Amino acid sequence: MNEWERLLRWHCGDLRDERLRQASGLWIVLTALGRDPSREPAPDGLAVSTAMAPADLASAGPVVFPLPEGPAAVQVFGLWRPQTALEEPLQRQHWLFWVVPGRQIHAERRSMGLNPLTRAHGPGGPAEHLAAQLLPLLGPP
Prior knowledge:
This protein is about 30% helix and about 20% strand. By secondary structure, the protein is of the alpha+beta class.
C-alpha cells in the first residue's frame, strides 16, 4: 500500500461512508464517459444516486437510493456491494448500475427502492456497460 492509500484509509477510516460512496459512484460514472472528474463536471442533465447493499440482502432492511431535487434528464443508480469491511468503493467489480431516462421517474419522488428499481428496470449492469448506455441518452459532450 503506497502512502496515498494509507492516508486515504486513515483520513476516511469508514470506507462505507455515504459521502465517499456517492463520490466513488460519480467518479466511476464520469470516468466511464471518458471524463476526468477532477477537471470536468458531470454533463448537464445527469444525476447519480448511490446506495450500499448489505452482505445479506435477504435479511436486511430495504435498500433505498435518494433522488435529487427536481427531475434529471438521465438518472443513474449505483449499488455498491462490498464483500468485506475493507473493500474500497472504487473497485468497479463490486458495483451494479441502472441507467434510467428521467421521464420514467415520477418528478415528485424523493427516493427509489432497490426492489421497485429491479422490477421496473432489471438486475442492473456492470460499470463496463455505462458508456454504451449513457452516451445515447446524453448526446455528444
